[in-house]
Write a structure and sequence with these properties.
Blueprint: E1 2-7, H1 15-29, E2 33-38, H2 66-75, E3 79-87, E4 90-91, H3 93-105, E5 107-108, E6 111-112, E7 118-125, H4 130-142, E8 157-159, H5 163-168, H6 170-195
Parallel strand pairs: 1-2, 1-3, 3-7, 7-8
Antiparallel strand pairs: 3-4, 5-6
Length: 213
């Protein structure tokens, strides 16, 4: 089993990476493979709603950039952790542009190719804005039928201006470790279910409410 961790910060070894690394270490200790992927400095477009990705055999965007590289890795992963710094009370805008396209190309007529993969969000801030950013990121999992992994008696966040600060946030560090352990546990439970004939429920034909009467 493998978990993909996306570092949505422009700093490859900053606070967000530090948090993700702690999660990855805990997963590795539980014999779960991990890969931390850094979003690149290359420009990235937001979704243009061309709908060319609909009906394709594999998740792929016509805007051929780092989104498609991430899609290949995510398609083979069993879990996903999204990490972001907090900018003006929200996640990194570039990361949001990437996620909007990434999750869109995994959509199918009956649901999402991500259904059944486990997900978690991790946020990092010097002081505030963590919970609002965390809420935004969790909505991607909810709209894709992905079980969301919790940690302990708080949300998945760390505080600090530098990686050294983050490591002094003992509660945050513990939260990241616990998140990794909980994700490993859930992945094993899902794997055990598959091996014993327990599969995802068959999706119903999707209904769409039209609020204009």
């Amino acid at each position: 089993m493998k978990v993909l961790l996306i570092n949505g910060s422009p700093h490859s070894k900053g606070c967000t990476y530090t948090a993700l690394h702690l999660v990855a270490e805990a997963l590795n200790e539980e014999k779960i493979d991990t890969e931390i992927v850094q979003i690149t400095a290359d420009p990235v477009n937001g979704c243009i709603d061309c709908r060319k990705c609909f009906g394709r055999e594999k998740p792929e965007c016509i805007l051929n950039d780092q989104v498609n590289e991430l899609a290949k890795k995510l398609d083979e992963a069993d879990g996903l952790v999204i990490g972001s710094p907090v900018y003006f009370g929200g996640p990194n805008g570039k990361l949001i542009a990437i996620l909007n396209r990434l999750f869109r190309i995994f959509r199918t007529s009956s649901g999402s190719r991500m259904a059944g993969k486990v997900g978690a969000a991790v946020v990092s801030a010097r002081r505030a804005g963590n919970t609002a950013s965390w809420d935004v990121l969790n909505k991607y999992f909810g709209s894709s039928c992905m079980p969301v992994v919790p940690s302990q008696q708080y949300w998945n966040m760390v505080h600090g201006y530098t990686p050294e600060d983050v490591m002094q946030d003992l509660e945050g560090v513990q939260t990241m470790r616990t998140l990794g352990k909980n994700m490993a546990w859930l992945l094993r439970c899902i794997q055990y279910g598959k091996e014993n004939g327990i599969t995802l429920p068959e999706p119903e034909k999707r209904e769409k409410t039209n609020f204009i009467r």
